[in-house]
Amino acid sequence: MDTFLASIKPRLKAEPSAPVILVSGNESADLDSIVSAVTTSYFLSRLQQSVLGQSNAIVIPFVNIDRQDLALRSDVDYLLSSSNIKTDDIFFRDQLPQLESILMRNPDQLSLFLVDHNRLAIGMSSLSAAKVVGTIDHHVDEGLHMDTAKIRRIETVGSCASLVADLFLNDTIALDQKDTSGKGKGKGQPDWLRQSARLLLGPILIDTRNLNPEFKKVTPLDIKIAKQLMPYTGDSNCFTSLFTTIDEARQDTSKLSFYDLLRKDYKEWSVNQTIQGESVLFGISSVNGVIDDFVKRDGKEVIQQAMSKWASKRGVQLLMVLFGHDFGAENGGYQRQIIVDPHSKGLQGFSAQLESVTELKLKRTTVVDTDDFVKRGGKAYKQQDTSFSRKQIAPIVEKLLGSSDSKKSNM
């Protein structure tokens, strides 16, 4: 895999007219999204003729954040570095102008392959003229790219990485064995296989909370793929060891300001409801931890200033922050909380709408309340049904805000 990644930039320079396939993750750029983009890129570089009918295309993994923001994602940084993946060879949003220039020069030269989302993100609209030749996702199927996608697999599983592995791993192993006459499992495996297996296993374990059915995320496919991947990692440790190490890195937010936490894992949607002549733009940040601890650490005012600053920077009329943390079975288990922070007079009553969704089992908490926050319609809640994550809550918010055909960034 190192050789593949290191070859991308030299090939772009040496082969300016070569077809380019950009494999893009979503704009939250979480562990699952980044790993899916990197591994899918590698697999397509090996299998593009058989799965896409192309040959000699330059396949580029694209992470939909600025390069400097990768430092906010300690779990991603840990898994990539411990798998010997050099981030210098991965493309980030800072390099979007280079990709735009390819599209402007020749609209047919650049094509897109979407992973962990199935509608092109709002921030990628400058590449909307490019054909989407593939989609792998585990979110709601929006029915797009039916005519252009040669690979289109959208299933509700715990992790997009499970779908990536299920689609490509066996075929790539078979190709490798054909080329090298095969090798045994474990430490005798080629570097690309050990790297891919470790990378893919990471988000599968994190997204399913170590394959734990109590969290209602894991599916039979996630379990099947995790069991298939483990022997290839060359690591004799059990799932729990890798899960714990990555999760500890993910939960270490001690060095991040609350503002950084808001932008660390963020998604945005535009809904076709007209408020004062404009569509409603809303965003949801996911934060590891609970409100009470951040109030103790930073204070209510700092938290609200950070939310207002981030909402203003993103231009959203509604910002929601979803909190979650696993305290362990002996200390109350997994807990979730929600902050609803409207930044439009037309949405001051949105909290009441959300409260009407009985499945969430929301219980009001005043831990972050101030007069200004409450005056603009802000409220915070304990979410007693913890099975609802952002993936399930975002469609609920869309339905409450506007029409079912809303345009989403699908980050």
Automatic annotation (TrEMBL):
It holds the Pfam family DHH. It comes from the Eukaryota. GO terms for cellular component: cytoplasm. Its cofactor is Mn(2+). PANTHER family: BNIP - RELATED, EG:152A3.5 PROTEIN (FBGN0003116_PN PROTEIN). This is Exopolyphosphatase. Signal peptide: none annotated. InterPro entries: DDH_dom (IPR001667), DHH_sf (IPR038763), DHHA2 (IPR004097), DHHA2_dom_sf (IPR038222), Ppantetheine_attach_site (IPR006162). The keyword Signal does not apply. Keywords: Hydrolase, Manganese, Metal-binding. It comes from Mortierella alpina. SUPFAM superfamilies: DHH phosphoesterases. Residues 243-401 form the DHHA2 domain. One of its GO terms (molecular function) is exopolyphosphatase activity. SMART domains: DHHA2.
